[in-house]
Amino acid sequence: MLFMNIYTWEPGQRNELVKRRMEKGISLADGVKKVGEWTDIGGGRAFLLMETTDPKAGMTSSTMWSDLMKMEIVPLIETSEIFKNEGKSKGAGK
To answer: At 68, which helix (H) or strand (E)?
Structure first.
């Protein structure tokens, strides 16, 4: 399963974030793979796309940052899967 982590921080937290990232890296839990990572060029926000079969491992991977920034963790599904399932549910009542 894919998870998009959206991290938001205040300007005053930037230096500590950079320091921790340089020292510890991303620190993903076992079973979690980084698919991609992006940073808002305006600052204050970053995005991490992760893949894992264990949602708890995905959540654990984000906790080391919770003292410095807000996190939004969004589970994702391929759009084609939504349409596949939508077609099945509409046909089920016929």
So the answer is: none
